[in-house]
Design a protein that fits this description.
This protein is mainly α and 129 residues long. The protein is built from nine helices and no strands. Helix 3 packs across helix 7. The chain starts with a helix and ends with a helix.
Length: 129
């Protein structure tokens, strides 16, 4: 997954968060409703990103178990936003696998009346970063 420095910079660019701000209190993990199903808990993911330890994140199930409920974001006293960091690492892995390549021009062909506008905005946000 990119060179270590490049991956850390890319996670920070995508998420807009500096993982080094984390004081490793564990409040994010303690409040996570998906805690039991995660192999690496949210505070540890943030810690691994801050420490440039990407080896453990490559096959980490937590990236796919995160509910993106943002409970961790609400609980964090340093505004580290673990859910956004997890999402950034997830996107980086998807892009590395070559699975996240859709030009914006293809989006209108996928739209229908049943698709919530929030989904459209979220997809554009992901594809544009």
């Amino acid at each position: 997954m990119h060179g270590i420095k490049d991956a850390q910079a890319e996670v920070e660019r995508i998420s807009g968060i500096n993982a080094a701000k984390c004081m490793r209190c564990g409040k994010c993990s303690a409040s996570c409703p998906a805690f039991e199903s995660m192999d690496v808990h949210p505070h540890k993911v943030v810690s691994m990103v801050a420490d440039n330890d990407y080896e453990g994140l490559v096959n980490c199930e937590t990236l796919w178990r995160c509910l993106s409920c943002f409970t961790c974001v609400e609980r964090c006293p340093r505004d580290v936003q673990p859910a956004n960091i997890i999402e950034a690492v997830r996107l980086l892995q998807i892009r590395e696998a070559g699975e996240n390549h859709m030009p914006p021009g293809e989006v209108p062909d996928m739209l229908d009346d049943e698709l919530p506008q929030q989904a459209i905005v979220a997809a554009m946000r992901k594809y544009n970063k």
